[in-house]
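Extended Data, panel c. Modelled sequence:
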Amino acid sequence: QVQLVESGGGLVQQGGSLRLSCAATGIIGTIYAMGWYRQAPGKQRALVAKITSGVSTFYADSVKGRFTISSDNAKFTVLLQMSSLKPEDTAVYYCNFRIGFSDFWGQGTQVTVSS
């Protein structure tokens, strides 16, 4: 059974940095993509960044130049380095693995940016 465990969230002041980590266990199959989503109160879950086949990256416009996604496929780990954080980055962040045709989600980690 695939399980994703996130870590690294917390409270940070505006302009600060945080690094989120997501480690997966129980992987059977090919990992097509790994990514991070976030959901702020009253809003839908939205894609923040994604890395496909360990090479191709995608970033939401709102985080371009501030966030960096990286992965270690051999260790089934995906990281999200977040810099120059803004209050509007406050949300619960979820990691996502696309394995074959199935999506797997972590439990979520809270990121709060104070002004």
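Residues 37 and 46 are 5 Å apart (CA to CA). This feature is highlighted in the accompanying rendering.
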